[in-house]
Task: inverse folding
């Protein structure tokens, strides 16, 4: 058989990232919160703002046409990157906004504002997991209250994990929405998205995927996964802040009531009513974040140039090193999959006798940037019996030496705070 091993991430990739290449004293292990940006993305935004900036989809001038071309070309590239059609990619403020747009659209359908196929009624059920980020929990809580539907969840175990059998046990003939994270931002667990989408489809439910921690790190083909909707953010995948993506199957987007209304979304407006454009424009009300869209287009170009298979292979190695580093330190407990099990390149952990915020400050004093807190997942942390964890997360620019630096610093934490006595 031919060698299908992906080409490795090139060794000098860090030189592309001024935020870390210019800071040799900084170990950046917080990419799950927000990633660094390569010079190619920074330059793409700056060049567009300097030379080509204009309103998009407004007017007939040459400047508008050129800006609109850049705007829509970026949509095509982002769509291709995630296995979607260009009509299936909607620009949003971020992934949180995208998930809210789906929930609010279903709420409007339930109120009789179109999209009858999405309407929820009393007795219908919405299914999430106990491990969800608040952005993929609170919108469904509110949707349940607005419609009379029942919110159900898949429970997690003592490590913060759930299985496909756990989810299957919560599905019923009344389930209408199944919302879940592709990759947990706390445990690093990778969910079997295609299988879950199939189970949801079998009971007539919509599947909604939080792809924030998968789109930057895994080869992603949303069409092949079979999910109905998905959301991800630009700033976690080398792109700008203030830009996210809502993916939806085209026929669903064309029927879902738009949560945001106003200019650019309509075909006809009278004093009594309005008719809306097909997707994606029906969801993109108001002035668009054009420079951010251009930056996100440059980000997916950069990732495609590296190769997502190579990114995934690099991070799989780092994931093992992260787990080994954390597990090797006495008094430090790893959250999520056991060592040796598949996980994303992030590791949340608990240092016995030391609060997570103190752990983070100790590491920060040694030049190591991590995330501390509940990571917008309070129910999961409550189930684990802790208020907060410390999370280290890697990306394509992370090195083995940085993981080793984390390990060495962790070995000092409990002694520094007198917790090893």
Result:
């Amino acid at each position: 058989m031919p060698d299908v091993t992906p080409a490795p991430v090139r060794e000098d990739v860090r030189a592309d990232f001024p935020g870390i290449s210019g800071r040799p004293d900084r170990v950046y292990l917080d990419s799950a919160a927000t990633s660094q940006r390569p010079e190619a993305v920074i330059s793409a935004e700056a060049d567009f703002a300097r030379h080509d900036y204009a309103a998009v989809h407004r007017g007939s001038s040459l400047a508008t046409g050129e800006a609109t071309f850049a705007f829509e070309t970026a949509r095509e590239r982002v769509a291709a990157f995630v296995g979607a059609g260009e009509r299936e990619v909607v620009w949003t403020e971020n992934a949180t906004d995208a998930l809210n747009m789906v929930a609010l659209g279903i709420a409007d359908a339930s109120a009789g504002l179109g999209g009858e196929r999405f309407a929820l009624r009393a007795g219908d059920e919405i299914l999430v997991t106990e491990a969800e980020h608040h952005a993929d929990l609170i919108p469904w809580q509110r949707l349940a209250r607005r419609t009379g539907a029942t919110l159900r969840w898949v429970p997690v175990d003592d490590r913060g994990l759930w299985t496909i059998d756990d989810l299957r046990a919560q599905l019923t003939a009344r389930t209408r929405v199944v919302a879940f994270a592709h990759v947990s931002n706390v445990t690093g667990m990778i969910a079997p998205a295609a299988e879950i989408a199939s189970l949801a489809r079998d009971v007539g439910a919509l599947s909604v995927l939080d792809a924030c921690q998968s789109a930057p790190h895994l080869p992603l083909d949303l069409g092949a996964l079979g999910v109905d909707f998905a959301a991800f953010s630009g700033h976690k995948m080398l792109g700008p802040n203030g830009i996210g993506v809502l993916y939806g199957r085209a026929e669903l987007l064309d029927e879902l009531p738009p949560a945001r209304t106003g200019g650019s979304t309509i075909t006809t407006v009278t004093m009594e009513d309005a008719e809306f454009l097909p997707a994606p424009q029906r969801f993109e009300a108001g002035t668009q974040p054009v420079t951010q869209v251009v930056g996100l287009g440059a980000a997916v170009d950069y990732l495609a140039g590296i190769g997502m298979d190579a990114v995934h292979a690099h991070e799989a190695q780092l994931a093992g090193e992260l787990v080994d580093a954390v597990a090797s330190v006495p008094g430090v407990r790893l959250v999520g999959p056991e060592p040796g099990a598949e996980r994303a390149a992030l590791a949340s952990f608990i240092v016995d006798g030391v609060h997570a915020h103190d752990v983070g400050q100790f590491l920060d004093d040694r030049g190591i940037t991590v995330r501390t807190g509940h990571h917008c997942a309070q129910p999961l942390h409550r189930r684990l019996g802790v208020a907060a964890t410390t999370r280290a997360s890697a990306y394509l620019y992370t090195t083995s030496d940085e993981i080793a630096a984390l390990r060495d610093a962790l070995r000092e934490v409990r002694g520094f705070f007198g917790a090893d006595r």
The chain has 14 helices and 15 strands.
